[in-house]
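User: Hello! My lab partner asked me to get a predicted holo structure for this protein. The small molecule is adenosine-5'-diphosphate, SMILES included with the sequence. Please write out the structure tokens.
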Amino acid sequence: MPQSTIVRLEGITKVYGMGDTTVHALAGIDLTIEQGEYCAIMGASGSGKSTMMNVIGCLDRPTDGQYYLDGQDVAQVGDRDLAHIRNQKLGFVFQQFHLLPQLSALENVMLPMVYASVPTAERRERATEALMRVGLGNRLQNRPNQLSGGQQQRVAIARAIVNRPVLLLADEPTGALDSTTTREILTIFGELNKSGMTVVMVTHESEVARCTNRVIWFKDGQVMQPYLAPEDLGTVTAA
Amino acid sequence: MDWVESGKMAVKTLTANKMRSSLTMLGMIIGNASVIAMVGIGQGAQRLASEQFESLGPNVLFVAPGSGQARQRTTNLPRTLVWDDAKAIASQVPSVQEVAAQKQGQYPIVYGGLNSSSSVTGTTPSFLSVRSFDVAKGRFLTDLDLQRNQRVVALGADLANRFFSDQDPIGKRIRIRNVSFQVIGVMRPKGSFLGSNQDDVAYIPLTTMASTLTGRTSPYGLDVTFISVSAKNEASVPAAEFQITNLLRRRHKIVSQDDFTVQAQKDILQIVGTITGGLTAMLAAIAGVSLLVGGIGIMNIMLVSVTERTQEIGLRKAIGASGQDILVQFMIEAVLLSAAGGLIGTGVGVGGTLLVATFSPLKAAISPAAIALAVSVSGTIGLVFGVIPARQAAKLDPIVALRSA
Ligand SMILES: Nc1ncnc2c1ncn2[C@@H]1O[C@H](COP(=O)(O)OP(=O)(O)O)[C@@H](O)[C@H]1O
Ligand SMILES: [Mg+2]
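Assistant: Hello! Below are the structure tokens for the protein in complex with adenosine-5'-diphosphate.
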């Protein structure tokens, strides 16, 4: 598979507030992520990890800088097209799952395809397939409140991959889960990555980061270590 | 995202919270039901009044004492309209067929141990043909009865039935204000007119009425309550109206303001139409206010719903919903709520109208125009009052929305 750059950030800044109380959540980020990578973003709380995930995920616009997603300059794109990009190219997994309680697992997973105007029959087929991929083929009709936390997060992963995105983003996906369930979720991410999916995940747990191939270390809105091998995590955490 | 999909989603959301949805619809239900029932009842009243005046016949005119304005200002009408006026109209106005003078009062009537307080009308023989009344049994008043001040009475059907039930009333004697009258006839039932029962009336000679019951009270002669006139035909009604007015002005030596009013059936119909039409419009307006209140209720609940579903909105945006998708979603919910409320309300209103039509003399009618109006107005209300909440939802920043707990 030919290597291609999925994410390229150049001098990205994000400033919150005005006047005296400005916060430089991102203070000039240069970063590239290639097709097929499996990265963990780590750093102290408040160091800007979520802010950067939101920029990469096209949920938020940077104050300044260039962002190319899958070769496309997304800084110039309007709100409507940005929604389309989120729908087609990006998959999100959140710490709090964010499933719609009134919908079944299957319907939750079908939702992104609703906004992509996929025909109903195909929606059902692809959503079932995605749920089977995360091991929930037997829970299609369950509502979120009839599922455990780990199962809910698996539904959320199925929802994130169902539109075949080029990039899967997860902000502390295991933050609300116990260690056994965390391992199950990481296994799924690992499998997805092996099948070619680019995965970027924020975590504060070293054990979680050790499952990935690359750690991006954050501090005060800047990337301190863009290419840290997971084995070398001890060097930064000790510092 | 297509409309069918959006509609399905809205139905799902609304049915997920049945209690709230139905309470929200309640405003629209009440609003629509009241618009339809009110308009239906108003139009029923209009029709009832019109039909009753139409039943008088198109040739009939009435002459009453007092001018239009004076009649509104006072209940103390001038006693200037007299029997001689009626006779003059009959003999001197060429387009007039017949004339009946009427003098009315309310008196105790007694027969045996039974008594009642009923309407007594002193009139002339022409009353029958002018007002299209019929005699069922016996005879009506004659000119001879009037000339001789005979103490005879023709009873309305209900009155006869009350006093005599299965006996034959003809020839019996009843007492009207302690004066003995002989029953000479019973009238055919006529029904009620504007709420007063025309079959609960005793008819006696006009002259007898004046001499034995009321007394001759006017310096101008035998004063009457009103004069009923029938024109030769429908086409001669305007001419009759004009000629009667002229004749009475001359007879009463009017210089400025008339002391009488001449009204044709058409004029009365018009007045009745104006009054009941205004009544209907007022009822509809009151009911319309409740529609408006219903709309505000929907806006209120939708605003709450946007606040409660902030996370859902954020999530939808994160997975690819555009602001417009969100806008459409909330608009559809608002319109569905109001239109469904409108439809149910219409059903309730139609039901209520039918009930009124069945159990009251009001010929309440279901007006298709009112239904169409109410349903489209409620849909529009949903649109109008849904806009503000839907725009709020569409505007939400996905990150802020997702972060909100
Ligand atoms: N909407 C906001 N308004 C103001 N400051 C914010 C906002 N979002 C984040 N920040 C600030 O930006 C910094 C980075 O936050 P965040 O990206 O959430 O950090 P992390 O995810 O690494 O814990 C923090 O100092 C935070 O307080
Ligand atoms: Mg964070």
